[in-house]
Amino acid sequence: xxxxxxxxRLSVVVPVWNEAVVIGALLQSLQPLRAVGHEVIxxxxxxxxxxxxxxxxLCDQLVSAELRRSAQMNAGAAVAHGDVLLFxxxxxxxxxxxxxxxQAFVPTLNVWGRFDVRLSGSRPLFRVISxxxxxxxxxxxxxxxxxxxxxxxxxxxxxxxxxxxxxxxxVELSRRLRDVSRPFCIASPVTTDSRRWxxxxxxxxxxxxxxxxxxxxxxxxxxxxxxAYQSDVRNAQ
Length: 237
Prior knowledge:
Layout: E1 10-16, H1 20-29, H2 31-35, E2 39-44, H3 51-56, E3 61-64, H4 69-78, E4 84-87, E5 92-93, H5 98-105, E6 112-119, H6 124-140, E7 150-152, H7 153-159, H8 169-178, E8 184-192, H9 195-200, H10 202-217, H11 222-236
Parallel strand pairs: 1-2, 1-4, 2-3, 6-8
Antiparallel strand pairs: 4-7, 5-8, 6-7
């Protein structure tokens, strides 16, 4: 990863909670960005597994926030200095040409965008799931957190950042951003860990995600959906 236009600074915000297994590899992969003047901010939700110690020397800022992804990403954005904010999950790796792809975004009229996503692992089903996730996103203009959403800082500030809700914060912000512009879609995929699909079962995870999105679309509160999600996670363990 080399220079994003010299007059445009990128801030990568990584929300984490007990991600010691993956945080080191992710932050190591982002060091070339830091080397050319961009910044990496880790927003921790109170990890107890050593995540903070692993992250401290590999990021520009380590901030603490309430254990809620929306709050963590807002906290990271609040201290960011970049012109473009990129929100990256700890188990997701940017493609090798991420900077070149973002260079193409900078001069456009789009105010935000996202990457296609690819699930790790060799199962053919994961390729099918990834295809449907990307196709759905292109048709609806809605981004999920696994797709590494990026947004111009001034637009993020004007819209007030992520809504303070425990689930679907990415979908909610996508809807507001979509009213400003369609997303800039990058075909080079980020690779996200398929562990949750493997732990719960691919088909069970697909069913759960679609149920939650349908209920959210129908107007059910993010709080009740978060309770349903946590209950499903506990039952699957």
